[in-house]
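Q: My labmate handed me this sequence with no annotations at all. I'd like to see what the chain might look like in three dimensions before we decide whether it's worth expressing. Could you predict it?
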Amino acid sequence: MFETSSRRRKRALESIALSFVLFTFGATSGCGGEKSPEDTTQPEAVEQPAEADLEIPAASVPRLTAAQYRNSVQDIFGEDIITPPTLEPDIESGGFTAIGAGISTVSPRGVELYEEGAYAISVQLVAEDKRERLTDCAPFSPQDEDCFEAIVDRIGPRLFRRPIGGEERAKYVALGKKIGGEANDFWVGARYMLAAMLQSPNFLWRGELGTPKADSSGRRTLNNYELASRLSFFLWNTTPDDALLEAAREGELSTSKGLEEHTRRMLEDDRAKVGMRAFFSDIFDLDALLELTKDPTIYKVYSPELGLWAREQTLLTIEDLIFEDQDFRTLMNTRETYLNRKLASMYGVVSPTREGFARTTLPEDSQRFGLIGHASVLSLYSHPVSTSATLRGKFIRERLLCDIIPSPPADVDTSIPEPSGETPTLRDRVAEHLENPSCAGCHNKMDPIGLALENFDGVGVWREDDDGHAIDPSGNLDGEDFTTPAELADLLTNHPRLTRCMVQHAIQYSTGNRLTPAQQPLITYLDIEFAASEFRFKELIVALVLSPIFRETTAPSDDIDHGADAEEGEE
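A: Here is what I predict for the chain of 571 residues:
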């Protein structure tokens, strides 16, 4: 784990405590005054909580997301392998696909899609120019058992993320021999054998069930291969590489030293950028930008590619902060970002490049700054034909500060009144809307901070007025007044719940489980470790990976069978 001096720990704790005093946010996460389980004040302890006092989530068996499926196939077989364009859709739970993956099932149509995809991939792999990726063996007959075994032994551990057991190997070899003999063609048999492996639950699901501890705690310890899988999909969003599987085989991941070494190795690999992109795309819902639609008659700068470009700007900016070991909090107010010519034109600045994206510093007189000034957030959290103070405020509350905003009752009209002579601006219409007591509780937490971004239209272009009426961006965030969007960005940068929220997101994403109040001591500990590292995100990841919540689990809530194959694969 990242080590800090006692002085730095103390300074970090004092900094967090001071922030809480400054904000004294009497802040309630619910709309009726009920606090969120994630919103407790910081206790004084700075040591990692005792394992006995920490609630460990129940085991789950996450299904590979569509991106993880494609990444895994191409990492194992080659980037030129064409993967299925359509698979069983990912589902969300608690706003995250990482959590939804742990409770998802597969529809009949999904089974068909996995089958079609498996055969399409296996056809490519048995082509003459790709057979060497499967084996160096030259089959001497359509039923060459040694060559079928060689394919299973090379491909199986990567696909299933663990060793292949004897009976399990024999099952696939028997299938290959049977089909190869009937077709009088070894490679036809290999094609069907590979298709069967690609449809196996051992590939499509990640078993993270653990082995029961010898004590009476009811906890389970993830074995080395399960830990390698969880670590790889967290950091890289793909299957473990050979080095990580070898570390699992040697038992290196069962020690904190070995686990930290491999975590840091993986964070230095370019695949970590892919993993962090997946993480932030999930927690900020950035993939929705790929289907962004706006009314082009209202927004003249809109084009179908806008969402893609805006998403790329945000992800490149986040990459810089993480992998250049910068203070992660500055994501809220940094003027350092990446732009292409289209976005530069939208932002009213000189493009830093003729092609693609390049790093640039927005001028000091620019009204744009940090994440909440990115076209990604501003366009995604707006309507197709208008801005939305509610959606933008909800994003800040839920995704940046981890407040819980309940869904409105089914019988409540949530629509904002239409413009009129008496309510020409959105602020006026929101004020009228808040007169409804059934709406005011929740909207008072979202709309006032969302109104701070009204100077940005529905695609993120700066404007001085709204249809000729002056825009007032002032407001209050948890007891602190602001008069401009820039001041709101600064308040978010120093908000005590910003880093705590990132800790919560990281725990939920990496384990695929929602948080409970009993996990607050660990959240506090990791938040303090984050602060002690001067808010370097990679150090937060290392601290999380070494914590019990990442390395352990408890009995699954439902009776999940390990399956004979999984038992045979253990070493």
